[in-house]
Amino acid sequence: MKIIQTETAPNPRRVRIFLAEKGITVAFEERDLMESELKSDDFTKLNPMQRVPVLVLDDGTVISETVAICRYFEALNPEPSLFGQSAIEQAKIEMWQRRMELGLFFHIAQVFRHLNPKMSHLEVPQIADWGEANKPKVDEMLQILDQQLALNPFIAGDDYSIADITALVAVDFMKPAKLQVSEAHTHVLRWHKEVSARLSATA
């Protein structure tokens, strides 16, 4: 079993944090996305989307997409639960995970991919106006997140979950995207300091 990744990319980091929280060790194989290694024929056969991470099981089964990989390991290793246990916990975590992925992480990624000149060979066409258009959407989601974190220690409630992992990686990805969390988002800043202090955050 191995996970193919680009270590500096945000999505593989989400999986590494997830595995660290579970105490699971998996071998990693490095591919450099900046050198177009994900566009090679052998990698494209594994994942036609040409994205990392990709989990390759011992029997040759290939699983791509970050959350799908995390769900696989959750099913095999249900404790500690990062997707929730009761029906309501699972629903709330799924809701906030989707919000963090599509409402925050996605827009930060669009800013980065469309405004960073180094990404021009990977984001074709690179549209600066689209990158700029995503900036206010990031702040809108951070405002919603701040309101949620005023009521809960973690994003989906009392317990750390995959929603926190996605949001942590997203907020950290703001730095290379040249974005900042407003000082007005005090609850986001409190939460970010706390989750960044977890041992898994360095994975």
Estimate the strand proportion. 5-15%
State the strand order across the main sheet.
Answer: 2-1-3-4
SSE series: EHEHEEHHHHH
CATH class membership of the largest domain: Mainly Alpha
Mean pLDDT: 97
Helix content: 40-55%
Number of DSSP helical runs: 7
Say how many strands there are.
Answer: 4
Which outline best applies? globular
**Residue windows where pLDDT falls under 50 for at least 5 positions:** none
Task: Report the end-to-end length measured between terminal Cα atoms.
Answer: 18 Å
Tell me the number of structural domains: 2
Main beta sheet, described? 4 strands, mixed
CATH topology of the largest domain: Glutathione S-transferase Yfyf (Class Pi), Chain A, domain 2
Radius of gyration: 17 Å
Structural class: alpha+beta
Which CATH-level-2 architecture of the largest domain?
Answer: Up-down Bundle
Kindly summarize this structure in a few lines.
This protein is α+β, with helices and mostly antiparallel strands.
What would your notes on this structure say?
The structure is a single chain. The chain has 203 residues and is an alpha+beta fold. It has 2 domains: 2-76, 3-Layer(aba) Sandwich (Glutaredoxin), CATH 3.40.30; 87-202, Glutathione S-transferase Yfyf (Class Pi), Chain A, domain 2 (Up-down Bundle), CATH 1.20.1050.10. It has 7 helices and 4 strands; from the N terminus they run βαβαββααααα. It has a 4-stranded mixed sheet with strand order 2-1-3-4, covered by helices on one side. A hairpin with a 5-residue loop joins strand 3 (54-56) and strand 4 (62-64). Helix 1 packs parallel to helix 3, helix 4 runs antiparallel to helix 5 and helix 4 packs parallel to helix 6 (162-173). The longest helix has 29 residues, at 87-115. It is globular, with a radius of gyration of 17 Å. 33% of the residues are buried.
